[in-house]
Design a protein that fits this description.
The chain has 457 residues and is mainly α. It has a single domain (25-447), classed as Growth Hormone, Chain: A. The protein contains 17 helices and two strands. A two-stranded parallel ribbon has the order 1-2. Helix 15 packs antiparallel against helix 16. The longest helix is centred in the C-terminal third of the chain and has 41 residues, at 369-409.
């Protein structure tokens, strides 16, 4: 696809969301329209990306696959999707947010059609893995959608907008799991093709809506070095690490939930499908709350609290696994989705706030406001792509950890212990770096500190 000319009906040449007058008279309506159709396309992308977390529930003994085979299968799209997030985030600036949404939505047709063809007993594992890898294209949609929406909204609304965008996208995980439940409970585990018949026309609707109702922002550009430039900033590494703990947990647990229930608590495919959607559903709905809380209290404070919550939830899962209590395990596992959802919203709110703080410092040093804010949007968009890619790798690590744990011990307890250690590390990093450390705090955190009695920056 050749680079766009950046002129025409769907290209916006003047976009200044920080200008209150512009925002109220023009920007809000346009940004909201782009947000909702971006959510729709991203939602479908998440569904196709996590499709194999549902399809493995249809794979009975006639398929001849071990639990380790299935964990490997659901790990594959996670890996590919995480890698694709970087080029997908760059594609928004190169081709335009609307244009790339059309292309990326259309690409979802390929893995859906291929899965419909190969989903039958007797198909070799390597074929399933190849098709699942192609399904990873759905994981890239998140990065391009977030980069695009980040450019549309002013700083004061980014937490809410990015949280809503991501939460609506994440909801695609729960929706395809609900559809899987509906198919298994009505048509039985031998009719997975119904899922494909549902999604193929919906994909076409999503790309059509993007073509008709979305816009491109002309001044967005890669400048060739946005990602290279942002990688020189220590925040890139810290935020990517923390996003492994939040989004990596959400997507990893979404892929693994049904398999863990089947192999650790001997649930049937129908029994597993009846509850697997709950975690992704609550995690998706609560993600905008994480963005809202970050807007109000500061991203690092909210993120720190979520990691504490995830550590407690992990301990509950360990206790439940050792006691063989399915009810207690459900409480612990669903709480992991809740806290990871909140953390997803708070970490992504922190990214644009970091660069807004740097922009204010640059303005104070004499740089023009327009240039400084445009640089902030460009770099925050680049870091959103990087953090999204690295964070998604957490989903791969979770599924590989479960695979190794079940292979060696027949239980997921060892995997949960490794997750607990990681969450402890995230707690330390968040506290030391953002609440007490030398790296500059976000604008929201500084404002809160200055408002407190005796606080200091």
């Amino acid at each position: 696809m050749a680079a766009a000319t950046r002129t025409g009906k769907r290209w916006i040449e003047h976009w200044e969301p920080e200008d209150t007058g512009f925002w109220e008279s023009t920007g809000k309506k346009i940004a909201s329209r782009n947000l909702w159709f971006s959510i729709f396309a991203e939602h479908i992308g998440f569904s196709i990306w996590t499709m194999w977390s549902v399809l493995v529930l249809f794979m009975g003994t006639e398929y001849g696959f071990t639990p380790a085979d299935k964990f490997l299968l659901v790990s594959t799209p996670t890996l590919v999707g995480s890698i694709l997030r970087i080029p997908y985030s760059l594609a928004v600036a190169k081709f335009g947010g609307r244009n790339w949404t059309i292309v990326s939505a259309g690409m979802l047709l390929i893995p859906t059609i291929l899965a419909a063809i190969v989903m039958t007993p007797g198909t070799p594992l390597w074929v399933f893995i190849l098709v699942a890898a192609i399904g990873g294209v759905g994981g890239g949609n998140f990065a391009s959608s977030m980069t695009n929406i980040n450019a549309f909204f002013p700083e004061r609304l980014k937490g809410y907008a990015l949280g809503l965008n991501a939460g609506g996208g994440n909801l695609g995980v729960a929706v395809i799991q609900l559809i899987g439940l509906l198919v298994i409970s009505t048509a039985g585990p031998s009719a997975p093709q119904i899922i494909f018949y549902i999604y193929l026309p919906v994909i076409i609707v999503a790309l059509t809506c993007a073509a008709l109702f979305m816009d491109n922002i002309a001044h967005l550009s890669n400048d060739g070095n946005a990602m290279g430039e942002v990688l020189k900033d220590s925040h890139a590494y810290v935020m990517s690490f923390l996003y492994i703990g939040t989004f990596g947990s959400f997507i990893g647990y979404s892929f693994a939930f049904g398999l863990v229930l089947q192999n650790q608590f001997d649930r049937t495919p129908l029994q597993a499908a009846q509850v697997t959607f709950i975690g992704a559903l609550v995690g998706s709905f609560i993600r905008p709350v994480g963005g809202w809380l970050a807007d109000k209290y500061g991203g690092s404070r909210v993120t720190l609290a979520t990691f504490f919550g995830m550590a407690v939830g992990t301990v509950v899962c360990i206790m439940a696994s050792n006691a063989g209590s399915l009810a207690l395990f459900m409480v612990g596992f669903v709480s992991l989705f809740v806290f990871s959802g909140i953390g997803n919203g708070s970490t992504y709110k922190t990214i644009p706030a970091i660069f807004k703080t740097k922009a204010l410092a640059a303005i104070a040093d004499g740089e023009s406001e327009a240039t400084a804010l445009r640089t902030a949007r460009r770099l925050s968009g680049a870091l959103i792509g990087i953090a999204g890619a690295v964070g998604a790798l957490g989903g791969l690590f979770i599924n590989l950890a479960f695979r190794a744990s079940f292979q060696s011990t027949g239980s997921g307890v060892v995997a949960f212990w490794s997750f607990l250690v990681f969450y402890a590390a995230c707690i330390v990093v968040t506290y030391v770096v953002y609440l007490r450390g030398p790296i500059a705090k976000t604008a929201a955190d500084r404002k809160l500190e200055l408002a407190g009695a005796g606080a200091s920056v």
